[in-house]
């Protein structure tokens, strides 16, 4: 029993430093989650048929999402993240409808990237990502209001 405990203690002590560095380089894994959510938001805006009354707002939102994706990719790369890693989307959606889904994914992406950032270059990029997400969310919410007005 004492030998097992000793072996476990040695293994635990040996693995703790590895676990401490598991998220390095960079401690902001949320960029990858945000990228997934941004791609999902974009898909909901672009690949599902919508009302002609909202297509201009959808185009604005898609352009802003594309800018946010580009900046988030740069921030993730600056933070040392593997851009080939695609975590699953936050699929717990509360409302029906593609525009509402896009808005929820945008909010989730914003929450992911709005976390504290210790890398000064990634911090500048993070601000740009948040601005683009906010612009995309505003356009998506305008599209939602337009649809509701035309019902």
Explain this structure.
With 151 residues, this protein is an all-alpha fold. The chain has one domain: Ferritin. The protein is 70% helix and 0% strand. The protein has five helices and no strands. It has helices at residues 2-20, 30-46, 55-78, 98-113, 120-149. α2 (30-46) packs antiparallel against α4 and α4 (98-113) packs antiparallel against α5 (120-149). The termini are far apart. Mean pLDDT is 76; it is low at 14-25.
Outline:
Helix content is 70%, strand content 0%. The protein has five helices and no strands.
Determine the fraction of residues in helical runs and give it as a percent range. Answer: over 70%
CATH architecture: Up-down Bundle
Strand content: under 5%
Q: What is the mean pLDDT? A: 76
The general outline is elongated
CATH topology: Ferritin
List the topology elements:
Elements: H1 2-20, H2 30-46, H3 55-78, H4 98-113, H5 120-149
Index terms:
151 residues; 5 helices; 0% strand; elongated
């Amino acid at each position: 029993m004492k030998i097992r405990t000793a072996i476990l203690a040695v293994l635990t002590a040996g693995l703790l430093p590895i676990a401490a560095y598991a998220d390095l380089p960079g401690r902001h894994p949320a960029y990858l989650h945000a990228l997934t959510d941004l791609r999902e938001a974009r898909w909901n805006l672009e690949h599902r048929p919508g009302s002609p009354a909202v297509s201009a707002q959808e185009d604005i939102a898609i352009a802003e999402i594309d800018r946010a994706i580009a900046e988030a990719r740069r921030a993730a790369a600056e933070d040392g993240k593997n851009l080939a890693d695609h975590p699953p989307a936050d699929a717990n959606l509360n409302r029906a409808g593609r525009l509402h889904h896009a808005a929820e994914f945008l909010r989730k992406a914003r929450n992911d990237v709005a976390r504290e950032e210790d890398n000064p270059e990634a911090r500048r990029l993070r601000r740009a990502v948040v601005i683009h997400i906010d612009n995309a969310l505003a356009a998506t919410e305008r599209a939602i209001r337009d649809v509701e007005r035309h019902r």
